[in-house]
Structure formats: C-alpha cells, structure tokens
Specification:
Two copies of one chain form a homodimer. Chain A has 339 residues and is of the alpha/beta class. In chain A, 44% of the residues lie in helices and 14% in strands. Chain A has helices at residues 7-14, 18-26, 33-46, 52-59, 77-95, 110-117, 134-142, 164-177, 193-208, 225-237, 248-260, 294-311; strands at 64-70, 98-104, 123-126, 146-149, 158-160, 183-186, 218-219, 242-245, 270-274, 288-292, 326-329. The radius of gyration of chain A is 26 Å and the shape is elongated. Strand 2 of chain A pairs antiparallel with strand 2 of chain B, so a sheet runs across the interface. The structure holds a DNA duplex (30 and 30 nucleotides).
DNA sequence: TTGCACTGCGCAAGCGGTTGTTCTTATTTG
DNA sequence: CAAATAAGAACAACCGCTTGCGCAGTGCAA
C-alpha cells in the first residue's frame, strides 16, 4: 500500500460522502444494507484503520488509559504487577484501548499531571496507592475517571482488591488447626489497608479458634532487613512454633537469617507467607503461601475503569467482576515433619 | 479553572489571532517581544497545555513511542527490563514523549500492528528481540522508526547493547588469573547473539591467558532446570574448579542443586554469573557477577530512537551515547577461601 | 391527490492545533 | 523623500474524523 488510506479516500472510491463511510463504520446512522456492505468489504480489503488522533480529536476520546506506577518495585511486587498488567492488557486489547505508562515519584506526580492536562488519556489505573496518595487526590479533584488497583482507605476511590482479611483468616485458621498454637505474625507498613486487613484476619482466626492472642509475637512495620532480623531474634526467645509473613520479601530475609542461625524449617518453626512469588521458587524447603490471581486483579481493575468511562456515555458494561480469587498453596514449610 | 483552555481562548483574551499564539509557543514565526511576553505570561498564569491530539493531528506526530514487550519475563529479565524502562522514561519525560506499552506473543504481533496502523506512535523500542523477530521484520518493512534494546543478528536494525564479549572476556580472565584453570561455562539459547558474544569472550580469554579450552565443560542451551541439573552432574565428574553462568536464573538453579549435593561454594567450586540480579541478593555466599547499567541501556535506546525521529526532520540530536557501562562485582563466591 | 413519516445520504461546521501566504505597518536605504 | 525591505500579525486551509441538520425520494394512510 502506498499512501495512507483515509476516510476521504474511501468515500471517493465508493462514490459516497465521508459521512456515509463514518456512519457505516460506527453503525450509528441509517445506511442501506447495500452501501453498507460495499463499504465494509472495501474497508476490509484495503485494510483501513481510522486515524486514532483524528478520531480522538473529533470525539474527545484518546482511547488510551494511563497506568501509574511507582519508581521502584521490589522483587515481589514487580512480578505481581507484571501479571496484573497482563490482565489489564487482555481487557484493553479487545476494548481497543492502549496503555500509557506513567511513572510517579513519592512526592512528584508531574508526569501524571502532564498526561492529564495534555489530554493524552481517558482514564487512569493506579497500580499502587500510597496512604496519602497525591495521585488519587489530584485525579479526584480533576474529576478524571480512575480506579485503584489494590486497597486504599479512601472510599471515594473506585478500587479493586483481593479479600486480604479472609485470605489471612483462612491461612491462620489452617495453621492453628495444625496444632501451631504460638503463631507469630510479621507484616509491613501498618498504615497500609492491606496490612491492616490481614492483621484483622489473623486476629479473627484466633478468636474463632479460641486461641489466645499474644501481641508480643505480632510485629508490623517490618520494612528493613535489619529490623526483620531483630524481630527474628526476639521471636526465637519467645518459643513460637510458626510464623506468618505478610510478604515474600519479608519471608526471604527471614529465611536466610533463620538459616544462618541453623534453625530448621519446618522442624523447628513452620513458615507461611503471601504471594507465592517466584523469588521463593527454588527455596528449600518450599514455602506455604497464599497465591493471588494477579491477572484477574488487573482484569477487574480495567473492567471497572471501562465501566466508568462508558457509564457517563451510555450502556453500563455487563462484565461482572466476580470475587477475586486466591489460593492457599501448602508446601513443605508447614507440613513436612521428617525428611 | 472551569473550562478547558484552548489556543482560541488565549487568542481571544489577548486580542490576537491563534496564529500568533501558536507561533509564540513554537517560537517559529516573527513575533514582537512585547506580544510574545504578554502571551507567554498569560499562558503561564492560566496554565495552558496544548491538546496533544490536536497538535498531533496537525503535524502528524503523536509524541508517544511504543515499547514492545514479550508476554513473559523471568525473575532476572523482569527487573532488568524495569530498570531499562526507567532509563527510557528519563529521556522521554523531558523530550515530552509518552510511552505506550505493547505486548506481543511469540507468533502474534497484532497489537503492534494495530498501534502502528492506527497511528498511535511515532516510533518503537523493542525490549526483547527474538532471533527471528516478526516485530522487527514488520517494522522494517513498514519503515517505522525503531530501535532494538539488546543485540540482534540483523545489522539493518538500529540497536543498542552492552559489550557482552568484552565483559565475559574480562570476567573469564579475572577468574583464570586467580588460578581457576578448569572453568566451566553454562549459557542459554545458543542462537542468541548475547550468548554467542559471551562465549567468544570466554574463548578469547583462554587464548590470551594461554589456557587450553575444554569443550567438554562448555554447555549452551541450558534452558530448563532438569537440563541444568544434568549439566551439573556431568561437571561434577570433570574435576572443575569454577563455573561461569551466563545468567542469574541458571545460576539460581545451579546453586540450589549444588547445595543439595553438599558442594560448598567457593571452597569446592567458584561461581560467577551475569546480571547481579536481586534474585541472588540474599544468597549465601554472595555471588560474583557482572552488573550492567540497565538504566543507561534504556537511555541509550531511547536517545537513539529520538535521533532517528528527529533526523528525518532536521537537527540531529547531540546526545552522545557513550560506551555502555558494566561492572564486575566480586563477591564471596569466587574469593572467600575460609569462613 | 395531498400529507406525512421515514429512509438514505450529503453539507458543512466543528475538534484544537499548524503553517504557507498575504496584508499592513514600520524601518531602511539610495 | 520616494521606494524598497523587513517586521508583526492575520487569513484561511488543512490534518482525518464525527455529527447535527437538512434535503430528496419512497411508501402509505387519509
């Protein structure tokens, strides 16, 4: 094909006006079956694709959505995000949207602002929310459609997330039922809703199973290796028989520290974690953990956003975002008793 | 601010024509200092941002570039890509471009085609090239500006990459000079240029150091854990004193296998690898490896693309893409002799 | 036969910018 | 001092597509 083929070309070739071509494509006006078919087949043959910019300019839509990511991801978050992203792409691909990647820094959302003020996107997906999220505030204020992938404390924000409380409840219950009565908990940033919800699940499981809760073996804000090691030292003095890590990165550090202390897993202490991340794939022993369906999270977030985008227009999408799934994967770290 | 502010608004408010406003912004026409300043300050105050779609439509530029990624990345590739991406973003951010993320599957580049035919991007960065790369072929054929991040065998393709041959040469030489004479090599896909180049560096280092090359301790195409373990068994029979893994994911598997065999690192065998990936951060012992400057790779790729994009227009960019850096990080796996 | 509703399609005005050309002044220059 | 020249700004077309409105033609009930 030599030149770019435009709607005018087609109109000329078909001996009709561009209006007719446009209407045929969008299916909006009244077009006779005959001309419609003629035009459609011509389009198919000549492989016409409307110019996205022109189209966008005409109806004030860009057909892009921004995905806002933080500057840094650790080895657990990154694959998690990547899989969610694939979920998002699944949806955008057949909704004919594209993804614009926007990076924000802790106190700097200039890139996001730029993308918004330049009208480069129709909506936004926040891939990670901070407790006090400038991005979310900005978007709320500007009335830009967006959804947050993962929990946030702000109920004004459209969000999708797994049920972390139930997940942790089930995991905890499972371990408690396996006669692991003194079960420690190590979690990350206390102000994160996720941390809070998992903590609640842990507590609730103790109540349900009528096992006393010992606040001395619950540690939150375990954000740095050094602190995790200190926690570990403390715990070793407390005669515990199990530990739930809220996060595989905590778990990794914990494991290597325990190994250096010659503590055996699961003989001395049982270990369970969250995310079932590949970072622990080759660990010996294999680690019991909760695996989320990351792609589904992405799909759900994206569907929700598309809903919002279309709702202002007309038909609410019918895609029912089901309950987000997770799975408790039981491995050696909580089961094997002899090797 | 209530309504979207457009160039017409500004023109009206300033009592000039939109031409004048446009010209003051682009700095192209002749505008008196007085009106220019008036307009510019008005723009600054009212925080005007030109509508990207309209601008793009007018001058046939989208101001976004596509980044093509594969469906899957492993735990070594993913962080590598992420850092390269950050490098790319550094450049695009102040060149006022945005990034469109496009995923391709092994034999399916429909998303890329869509993005191109819809005129959604000005250029493309291929984040991973396959030996027989449909994406590259397509782009070449369509004469779309693009660069490949990482080597490819096709010299028609604009590409940026580290000097893997020299890197491996230096690493090998270093180890050989430390009296590790029987040094095995385990690499990935033989058809990859990267693998080939590293292999060459390994060979060259042996020649330079006048150490006989033993093909029996060189293994390529080590793509699956099971095969890596077999290689490992073989090597253990060959009385080697060191192994270079071309890739941290190979290394990870190797290490866990060696551990299960009670082989001590570095006492029994020295180990070195590539990428210095976080996946090995907590490994004991720490692993000697080559660390590339991933962000710089991204920056270089992006600059090169922008060069191509502008070159057809006018001024060649002056950003000199220096030699891509890498660093040999020496850790316990090749040094510690007693603990 | 006239009136009316409906079908099928085109006109032309946008969407928000850019740019070649023209027009009007101001400034040089012989 | 007239004429040539340059400076500053405006006109209007265009980028490719959408859409409100209007107009001709057909079918049918009154």
């Amino acid at each position: 094909m030599s030149k770019k083929i435009t709607i005018d070309n087609i109109a000329a070739a078909m001996g009709v006006s561009k209006t007719t071509v446009s209407r045929t494509i969008s299916g909006k006006g009244r077009i006779s079956a005959k001309t419609r078919d003629r035009i459609l087949s011509y389009i198919a043959e000549n492989n016409y694709n409307p110019h996205a910019l022109a189209k966008g300019l005409a109806n004030s839509k860009t057909y892009n959505i921004a995905i806002v990511i933080p500057e840094e991801y650790n080895l657990v978050e990154l694959p998690f995000f990547q899989k969610s992203l694939m979920g998002i792409l699944e949806i955008t691909e057949d909704a004919d949207y594209d993804i614009l990647l926007v990076m924000v820094k802790p106190n700097d959302i200039t890139q996001l602002i730029k993308v918004i003020t330049n009208n480069k996107v129709d909506g936004v997906i926040l891939a990670r929310t901070y407790q006090k999220d400038m991005a979310a505030e900005y978007l709320l204020e500007q009335k830009i459609p967006f959804v947050s992938m993962g929990s946030s404390n702000n109920e004004l924000i459209a969000q999708v997330d797994n049920d972390h409380q139930t997940a942790c409840y089930e995991l905890t219950s499972l371990l408690l039922s396996q006669d692991i009565k003194r079960l420690a908990l190590i979690g990350g940033d206390e102000s994160h809703v996720v941390t809070e919800n998992r903590y609640r699940g842990y507590v609730r499981a103790h109540q349900t199973n009528i096992i006393p809760l010992d606040q001395d073996i619950i540690y939150l804000n375990a954000l740095y290796p050094a602190y995790i090691q200190r926690i570990c030292d403390d715990l070793l003095k407390s005669r515990i028989d199990g530990i739930i890590c809220m996060d595989d990165s905590i778990c990794t550090i914990l494991l290597s520290y325990l190994k250096s202390k010659k503590i055996l897993i699961p003989e001395d202490i049982k270990i369970a974690s969250f995310y079932h991340s590949a970072i622990l794939d080759h660990n010996i022993p294999s680690i019991t953990s909760i695996k989320f369906d990351e792609a589904e999270l992405g799909r759900a977030a994206c569907c929700k956003l598309l809903d919002i985008l279309n709702e202002s227009a007309k038909t609410p999408m019918e895609k029912p975002v089901g309950q987000l799934r997770y799975e408790i994967i039981i491995r050696e770290s909580t089961t094997k008793t002899s090797s």
